[in-house]
Write a structure and sequence with these properties.
Helix Hairpins, 18 strands, 2 domains
């Protein structure tokens, strides 16, 4: 959600920023609605003021015995009362129209975000680790995993495509990864562990930006709730409709939850294997902070996600996303892409975004700066720390052995009950 004052103050700059994201100019349409609404609001206020003045004058006229004047005033008040509902409805209708226009617009990219239409325009910022030199041809996880307990057939038989049944050591390795990440983020990296709801109401998914535009990417229950696509929804909305104590900021939260996505926008992509599932687990990171702190919190969150990959000794690269590849809620995003030797490519394993006040406006999440008379909107940030399934894929491919066994990374062994290798 955007502050309409940005459009009033500099409509050309607002349209230029949207154009960087491939969105057509909207300021003229929104300002026309706004001008009309403000005109209606003025007429409504004038009518209410006149009604109040006339109502007081009735008593004065009656006190003077001027019944004719009193009756005329009563008729005027009745006429005003009759026209007020129409003015109120007109104002409300245009308020909603302006809100709908603002709600459908993506966030404005920061100046340092590179131009680009799609992932080809992303910019590599850094790399960590050296891809392993295999003495054999490494397999993709979809070929390696089934013999080790990654059962695609049973998952599909039970639930359909994009579901997987994990068994034995594979299931334990998956659980170990999630627990390791959660302990690292809540311990060393200082994010407060949370166990949030997995079902949320319309206003929650609106608040973080999935509604109204991306409803097809979500699963909805028969009673109208939504299965969370990420714990970002629950964690971020924990501050909705609140005025936060500035002394309590920043709020840093983390959660390990199942996530559910229809993947409607990714039809035909990664249909083979464990990369893109309808149900998966993820450790999410969310920060709520003062506006001036969000750039530093963004870098801090990226480092927290990187710390997992480094502990697991998985080579990766850090990418600054271009204007055409960022999510709608983000004003700046870094992706971490892990090396998958079976595919011979880097693949996204974490996306970390600074959303500025875009989500906070939708949630009405504010704080009152010390000494200020008015409240301000907080800034929100979110990122994966990490996606458990994709990390499992990375471990399988990077730690595979020539006999098709998989070594357990040293950092995970305390969570594996002494198991140091998955074997066929």
């Amino acid at each position: 959600m955007h502050d309409i004052r940005l459009i009033r103050d500099d409509p050309a700059a607002f349209d230029a920023a949207l154009a960087r994201r491939g969105v057509e100019a909207v300021s003229a349409r929104i300002l026309a609605l706004d001008e009309y609404r403000r005109g209606v609001a003025t007429r409504l206020q004038e009518a209410q003021n006149r009604r109040n003045e006339a109502s007081k004058a009735i008593g004065a006229a009656m006190g003077k015995g001027d019944k004719e004047a009193a009756e005329a005033l009563k008729a005027e008040v009745a006429q005003i009362k009759e026209m007020l509902p129409a003015l109120e409805a007109d104002e409300r209708q245009h308020d909603e129209a302006i809100r709908a226009e603002l709600a459908r617009l993506p966030n404005l990219p920061l100046p340092e975000v590179p131009e680009g239409e799609d992932e080809a325009g992303n910019v590599e910022v850094a790399r960590w680790g050296t891809p392993r030199d295999f003495a054999f041809t490494p397999k993709e996880h979809a070929d390696l995993g089934p013999a080790l307990g990654m059962d695609f057939e049973t998952g599909a038989a039970i639930s359909g495509a994009r579901f997987t049944f994990l068994k034995g050591g594979m299931a334990r390795l998956h659980r170990a990864l999630g627990q390791f990440m959660l302990d690292r983020q809540s311990g060393e990296n200082g994010y407060v562990e949370c166990a949030p709801p997995l079902l949320v109401r319309d206003e929650a998914v609106f608040g973080t930006g999935q509604l109204p535009k991306f409803a097809e990417d979500l699963f909805r229950t028969t009673d109208g709730r939504w299965l969370i696509p990420t714990a970002e929804v629950s964690l971020t909305n924990s501050v909705r409709e609140q005025i936060l104590d500035p002394a309590a900021l920043p709020l840093r939260m983390t959660a390990l939850t199942p996530c559910f996505r229809s993947e409607a926008g990714a039809a035909g992509r990664d249909t083979r294997g464990f990369i893109r599932q309808h149900q998966f687990e993820k450790v999410e990171l969310v920060t709520v902070c003062k506006p001036e702190d969000s750039p530093a919190e963004h870098e801090r969150m990226v480092a927290a996600a990187e710390s997992i990959l480094q502990a697991l000794e998985l080579p990766y690269r850090k990418m600054l996303l271009c204007t055409g590849d960022m999510g709608a809620s983000a004003r700046k995003t870094f992706d971490l892409e892990v090396w998958l030797p079976g595919q011979g490519a880097y693949r996204e394993i974490s996306s970390i975004s600074n959303c500025g006040d875009w989500q906070a406006r939708r949630m009405n999440a504010r704080y009152k700066p010390e000494g200020a008379k008015r409240t301000e909107f907080v800034h929100t940030l979110n990122g994966s720390g990490l996606a458990v399934g994709r990390t499992l894929v990375a471990v399988l491919e990077n730690y595979q052995q020539e006999d098709s066994s998989v070594l357990v990374p040293a950092a995970l062994r305390p969570w594996m009950g002494g198991l140091d290798r998955l074997t066929v």
